[in-house]
Amino acid sequence: MADRLVLVINSGSSSLKFQLVDPDSGASRFSGSVEQIGEPSSDVADHDAALRRAFDLLADDGIDLKHCGLVAVGHRVVHGGKRFHRPTRLDDEVIAELQKLSALAPLHNPPALQGIEVARKLLPDVPHIAVFDTAFFHHLPPAAATYAIERELAEKWDIRRYGFHGTSHEYVSQQAAQFLGVPLESVNQIVLHLGNGASASAIVGGRPVETSMGLTPLEGLVMGTRSGDIDPGVYSYLWRTAKMDVDEIESMLNKKSGVQGLAGERDFRRLRSMIESGDAAAKLAYDVFIHRLRKYIGAYLAVLGHTDVLSFTAGIGEHAATVRRDALAGLLELGIELDEKRNATGSGTRRISTDDSPIAILVVPTDEELAIARDCVSVL
Ligand code: ADP
Description:
Nucleotidyltransferase, domain 5; 6-stranded mixed β-sheet; ATPase_NBD
């Protein structure tokens, strides 16, 4: 069969990441990003310019999108709301529905829609397909999906726990089962996706039963710039007493909080060197991050009752051995025994627990672009 390729586009407010993927072999033909979209110092004015720049980068590499076997363009869309939980072909009606969903994800869906609009214009002859970060968690059990707030209000405004990073949680859980050589249906798993955004999930037989993010990607773990769980009382207190308005509070919680808010630095590599040079704020930020992570691990072990495998993924999960060590230290009684040497070495999908550890601890590199590309061809 001739190569077929999918162009996967992840369009954020100030960056556009793209990758040309062969969904059959899993190979990436090209990956790139255009940063600083719309920033004063940048010559990339908007998403239209960004995508044109991306096409130039592909052309510089000898790739002509019109003659390379492109079968679809896959767009990562953060929020699918109640309606969208399958890869969905984008047409005007779907796009109009997605526009309405922007209220649920004001920081995330609008830039994706901009990317979709431009890409459809530049590549009108291939199907464009949206793949939703919420999709995998659509069937969370009601007890996990429901906020304990006034029911009529929640129903009227579609307030529930949606969960995000679903593409990654699903992919990693499949990879973990495959690596262990066991059927997905037979294992209980915890997946810890620790990147700039961070989330945890508990998965039974391939179906999610709990996840840490909620109505928006703000809930749950401490993240690079997001607070994660916080008493909603803080919100009203800041509004009433500090006279901050809703946009300021939302921006503070999403962009100026988390590890960045506590230490002035969100990158875990630099955070580590700050800790090593005695920076107390960096140490506290790290400790708060680890403490929250351990609380979630404990909670998910209890949610599952029996756990077979726990996997770390994304930038921090795949690369920060100290985070993995500190998150799991002293949990032998709960069935977790890390092998320090395995944890500190190796690459790719691997086991980092001892052979005797009742729960297998894995590192599993995520590949959201490949997962999106495969989702796309599944609906062609
Ligand atoms: P995103 O959520 O933006 O996709 P990634 O999954 O790429 O993020 O994770 C990015 C984060 O991973 C960085 O901010 C950094 O904190 C962390 N990271 C990446 N490489 C390393 C490394 N070698 N050691 C420690 N942390 C790392």
